[in-house]
Design a protein that fits this description.
6 strands, 152 residues, single chain, six-stranded antiparallel beta sheet, alpha+beta
């Protein structure tokens, strides 16, 4: 039996079609809603379950959305599906997030891709275009993936 080559973009689109979500995506209510070559959009709505002791969304909520958008933006540009591991991510917080923000969109964009590294950026926006957080990321590209499970 020969190996079927599945591109990163094909894998992401299949996951969207099948509504496949990772454990973390389920935990914070994150969905992959758009995938193009080098571009993805994830959505999630902040709820009190993701609040910190100050009554606003924990920074980890925003960081998780942005890190995921960065990684999937890199994945979407792969000719064959590979593991993408975050080497570093820098998050800047531009405003406090509460449930009043409504559904947020984490928009990830590929900046450059080599055989072993990807550089990406992402923004976390509400429906009005208000910027709540942004990130840049460096990712390490490893071996081919054996499974499509848990991409988003």
């Amino acid at each position: 039996m020969s190996d079927v080559i599945v591109s990163g973009l094909d894998a992401l689109r299949a996951g969207m079609l099948n509504q496949t979500r990772s454990g973390m995506a389920k935990l914070i209510g994150m969905d992959l809603v758009e995938a193009e070559h080098g571009h993805v959009v994830l959505t999630a709505t902040p709820t009190p379950e993701v609040y910190n002791m100050l009554g606003i969304a924990h920074g980890g909520f925003a960081a998780t959305l942005l890190d995921s958008a960065c990684g999937l933006a890199a994945t979407s540009a792969m000719e064959d599906l590979r593991n993408v591991v975050t080497l570093e991510v820098k998050v800047a917080y531009h405003g406090a997030i509460t449930e009043d923000a409504g559904e947020l969109r984490a928009v990830g964009k590929l900046l450059s891709l080599t055989r072993r590294t990807a550089f990406t950026e992402a923004q976390l926006l509400d429906s009005e275009g208000t910027l709540y957080a942004s990130a840049t990321s460096t990712l390490y590209i490893t071996e081919k993936r054996k499974s499509l499970q848990g991409l988003a």
